[in-house]
From TrEMBL:
Keywords: Transferase
GO biological process: protein ubiquitination
The name this protein goes by in its record: U-box domain-containing protein 55
SUPFAM superfamilies, per the entry: RING/U-box (SSF57850)
SMART domains with a match to the protein in the record: Ubox
Keyword presence, Disulfide bond: no
Every U-box domain range: 1-61
InterPro entries on file: Ubox_domain (IPR003613), WD-SAM-U-box (IPR052085), Znf_RING/FYVE/PHD (IPR013083)
Length: 78
């Protein structure tokens, strides 16, 4: 998920996907199958920040793992 939005059912969805759902004339929640009382979508900035933080942490872990495995290779070559 890159751009989470909260729909009337109080669930976060990928913004572009829930917009397509609503624009296709679907007025029920994709998750709860209850009627959506309105089509206003609210950007979920807290979830977006959490996703971005998690992505940064994952990248840092990958870089650390890559540098750790590379350091061991240098020691064995001597």
């Amino acid at each position: 998920m890159r751009d989470p939005h909260i729909a009337a059912d109080e669930i976060s969805y990928e913004g572009s996907e829930i917009r397509k759902w609503i624009d296709a004339g679907k007025h029920n929640s994709p998750m709860k199958n209850e009627s959506l009382t309105h089509d206003v979508l609210i950007r979920n900035t807290a979830l977006r920040r959490a996703i971005e933080d998690w992505q940064k942490q994952q990248l840092q872990l990958q870089l650390q793992q890559a540098s750790s495995s590379g350091a061991g290779d240098d020691d064995r070559s001597h």
